[in-house]
């Protein structure tokens, strides 16, 4: 779970999900304990992006290998996305400063 770099509190699941699935990593999320804005680190954004690509490729590549139809592939994708979401929550690291993508 993400930990606030200002006060050291571990964020709850709701705040972790909010920060994990924001599409704009530059806006940040306020810590519910100290009120300081926290940003996802560049390294964490890169790691979670790579995980997303791997999960997408796994679903796309497994379909022809197992000779599945589209609906079966989507049923297979649901647990993959669930595991991915859990992994992303635990990979996120926070920073007090905004890090640019460049």
Give an account of the 3D structure.
With 102 residues, the protein is mainly alpha-helical. It is 54% helix and 8% strand. The protein contains 3 helices and 3 strands, in the order H-E-E-H-H-E. A 3-stranded antiparallel β-sheet has the order 1-2-3. A hairpin with a 6-residue loop joins strand 1 (29-30) and strand 2. Helix 2 packs antiparallel against helix 3 (70-91). The mean pLDDT is 83.
Which key features would you list for this structure?
single chain; 102 residues; mainly alpha; 3-stranded antiparallel β-sheet; 54% helix; elongated
Number of strands: 3
Instruction: State the helicity in percent bands.
Output: 40-55%
Q: How much β-strand is present in the residues?
A: 5-15%
The number of distinct helices, counting runs of at least 4 residues, comes to 3
Q: Mean pLDDT across all residues, rounded?
A: 83
The largest beta-sheet arranges its strands as 1-2-3
The dominant shape is elongated
Main sheet makeup = 3 strands, antiparallel
Structural class label: mainly alpha
Alpha carbon gap, first and last residue: 26 Å
Low-confidence stretches: none
| Helix/strand order | HEEHHE
Radius of gyration: 16 Å
């Amino acid at each position: 779970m993400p930990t606030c770099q200002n006060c050291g509190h571990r964020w709850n699941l709701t705040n972790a999900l909010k920060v994990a699935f924001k599409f704009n990593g530059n806006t940040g999320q306020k810590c519910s304990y100290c009120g300081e804005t926290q940003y996802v680190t560049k390294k964490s954004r890169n790691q979670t992006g790579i995980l997303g690509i791997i999960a997408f490729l796994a679903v796309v590549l497994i379909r022809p290998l197992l000779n599945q139809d589209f609906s079966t592939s989507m049923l297979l994708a649901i647990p993959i996305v669930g595991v991915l979401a859990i992994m992303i929550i635990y990979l996120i690291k926070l920073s007090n400063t905004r890090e640019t993508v460049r």
